[in-house]
Amino acid sequence: MAIGAVFLIVLIYYARGGDAASSFDPDSPLSSLKSTTALNGDRHIYAAMLDAGSTGSRIHIYHFAKSEQGILRLIDEYFKENQPGIGAFANNSEKAGEKIQALLDSGMPKIPKGQVSSCLINLFATAGLRRLPEKQSNALLDTVCKYCGQHIISIREVIKKSPFKKPKSYVSILSGDNEGIYAWQTLNFLTGTLNSSNTEASYGTLDLGGASTQLTFAAIDEKTLKKFKEDIKTDEVLEQKFRLFTKSYKDMGLKVARVKVLAANPKSKDGKFVTACSPSGAKFSWKDFGVENNVSNPSDEKYGFEECMKEVKNYPKTDKIEELKVRKAYAFSYYYDIAVDLHLIGAKGGEIDIQKFYDAAKIECNKPKRDHDMLCFDSVYIINLLTEGFGLDLQSKLTIGKKINEFELCWALGATLEMLGE
Ligand SMILES: *[C@@H]1O[C@H](CO)[C@@H](O)[C@H](O)[C@H]1NC(C)=O
Ligand SMILES: *[C@@H]1O[C@H](CO)[C@@H](O)[C@H](O)[C@H]1NC(C)=O
Ligand SMILES: *[C@@H]1O[C@H](CO)[C@@H](O)[C@H](O)[C@H]1NC(C)=O
After folding, report:
1. Is 233 found in the same domain as 169?
2. Angle (deg, nearest 10), helices 93-107 and 134-142
3. How confident is the model at residue 359 (pLDDT cuts 50, 70, 90)?
4. Catalytic site residue 179?
5. Ligand nearest to the CA of 197
6. Residues 42 and 168 placed together within one structural domain of the fold
7. Out of 179, 364, 388, 418, which one is annotated catalytic?
8. Are 185 and 3 in contact (CB under 8 A)?
């Protein structure tokens, strides 16, 4: 990955001013960011990244300031999301286009008028679309609907007609590998740990999406480099080279795992899902990817933490990775949401060990009445993915969060750095 080496000669990251108090413990290295605003003489750069994800579409508009010395700082970000993801409109590309148009409309006023035409824009669709047959996902991005009159309809058309600056390719499906690499770059950029002379300082990233899950870390151990040769990519960012282990595990996302695990159990008499992760007699439905899923447990169904563990244990089909145990790791997306739901962390995130997850899941799963229908399943899935899947211990520590100094943690910033450097 040739990440803007010329442009990003020295890239020092400062968080936005004002409310830049860190989300974390003041002793944590994550808090050591200075805050600043743009200085006189800085050139202002805006860039927009659209994320067509499996559960929603998002726009990120990044505002950078580049100094005369070529130092780039991230000043501000505008973020907006709408749901469901465009994958839910597989046969209705008009609706998908409207969703993207709404995001562009909301973001446009955030950019100074004179800067819109130089604001680069790009859209990446992620796992939700990777799961669709290629013909359908391409149709969704490309096809101009025949029945839509004068409306702008396909996603590619929506972006083509927008006043933003378009690079050569501006609508595509993001590969799982690049999704993981970009997220890793984003995180380590924001924490100031992109330093190839001190690779140990970098964080590995654990990203749990709806359809797939990504794991990326800078591999140092020769055993890792040898054993996982296929999954090692050379990454060049800020003129520094890293060897990254990166892998996107298809169908290991939380929402797909729910359905796959439950589908493997015998069904109820009326053809609905039965699960030991919900109390006996539980009846509920939830909707993902446009499909309504129904649970109907018999009144004598055995349930609870141990039973749920048995049900979920064999699902994560991933490789145990020894080196991960000794590296710093940062978990976000659904790892964060579930940890918040279990009251393990506050909204600002924090560091916990997996044992804490385990203890909280045990309490949740043994409750005869639940506030959250799937929280027991989700937390047990996460424990199994981390331990049975990736090979972490219950003592392994994770930093869990959603934002660093108000900046959203996702692949979009890393992808934006690449777009700007091209
Ligand atoms: C979309 O259409 C295809 C073929 O016309 C069909 O096989 C598929 O099930 C449809 N998908 C949805 C989500 O409606
Ligand atoms: C990178 O790490 C090395 C070794 O710890 C250190 O000497 C150097 O100052 C670091 N560079 C930056 C830019 O932080
Ligand atoms: C769940 O129930 C709804 C309403 O009865 C039905 O439309 C849907 O097909 C069911 N879902 C599955 C996966 O069977």
Report:
1. no
2. 50
3. very high
4. yes
5. 2
6. yes
7. 179
8. yes
- 189 Cα: distance to centroid of ligand 2 (angstroms): 14
Same-domain status, 369 and 299: yes
Distance of CA 193 to the CA centre of its chain: 19
Residue 64 domain flag: yes
pLDDT of residue 6: 32
The packing angle between helices 375-384 and 254-263, to 10°, is 100
Ligand 2 center from residue 5 Cα (angstroms): 18
Mean pLDDT of 294-311: 96
User: Is 293 a pocket residue for ligand 3 (Cβ < 6 Å)?
Assistant: yes
Inside any domain, residue 370: yes
| Ligand 2 pocket member 91 (CB < 6 A) | no
What's the number of domains the chain is made of? 2
Tokens of 338: 């579930």
Ligand 2 within 6 A of 197 CB? yes
Same domain, 224 and 265: yes
| Residue whose entry in the numeric block shows the structure tokens 């899902």 | 273
Do 147 and 201 fall within a single domain? no
Tally of CA atoms within 13 A in the half-sphere of 2 that contains its CB: 4
Query: How confident is the model over 43-90, as pLDDT tens digits?
Result: 899 999 999 887 889 999 999 888 887 667 888 899 999 988 877 776
Do 232 and 362 have their domain in common?
Answer: yes
Range of the domain at 63: 38-174
Within-domain flag for 336: yes
Length of the chain equals 422
Report if residue 32 sits inside a domain: no
| 156 and 205 inside one domain | no
Question: Which residue type is seen at 350?
Answer: G
- pLDDT bracket for residue 304 (50, 70, 90): very high
Looking up residue 54, the CATH number of its domain turns out to be: 3.30.420.40
Token pair recorded at residue 173? 């499906």
Radius of gyration of the chain (CA): 22
Cβ 198 under 6 angstroms from ligand 2: yes
The answer to the question of whether 214 is labelled as a binding residue is yes
Sign, CA dihedral 179-180-182-186, equals positive
Among 108-122, 131-145, 153-167, which stretch is predicted with the lowest mean pLDDT?
Answer: 131-145
402 and 282, same domain (yes or no):
yes
Give the integer Cα–Cα distance in Å for 243 and 235. Answer: 6
